[in-house]
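Every protein is a chain of amino acids, and every chain bends into a shape of its own. The protein below has been through that process, and both of its lines are reproduced in full.
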Amino acid sequence: MESQVRGGTRWKRFAVVMVPSVAATAAIGVALAQGALAASFSVSGQSFKVTADRLEGTGFSQYGAIDSGYTLDGKQTAHPVAVSAFQSATIKGMCQSVVTPDIPLLGSVSLMLTAGGGKNPVEAKNLYIDVEDLQADATFHGIDIGVAAKDANKGPGIKKGDTANPYGFAQQADSATLTDVKQTAWATTAGTFKLSGLKMSLSTGVKECY
């Protein structure tokens, strides 16, 4: 979900940015709730928060990269991230939120997505999460620490288009289980992503997953 703004009044800027973004999110959400779909989530120039009660993944790898994009006023940005990658993953109790501040007449507006809260978890294949900050209780099985990113073969490999040093530090594991997950991310990408029990809400003020 990328947005760029080209001139106009502040109110027109709000309309150009918010309306297509919300419409696109809703359309993607319906499709994801109905079945598996390739998906890529990013918010131009903004990080977003993600929580999960439990994430279980197989084929895990992690490496450093640089995320780039544009802010809502057209300025280019770059952020160092740790990319966590899974060949497959299930997620229980997932929440994703982003706050857009300083909107004329409204102030801050919060967008929140929740899924996987019932008996059916969120399911993902070739999942990449570009993480800025992570808090969780984690258990790894068959872990290798200190391999080069290009040699991390247990996970799905370096994501196409990533600005990453193939000879840089990486780690990998046969499987990983994370509980009580709290993280700040800049992007999420998946080959397929199924959001069971999806709910989307849009509200004024600051309302985040944590």
Remarks:
- The two ends are 22 Å apart (CA to CA).
- Residues 10-204 form one domain.
- Strands lie at 37-42, 48-70, 76-92, 94-103, 107-115, 122-141, 144-148, 169-194, 199-204.
- The chain has one helix and nine strands.
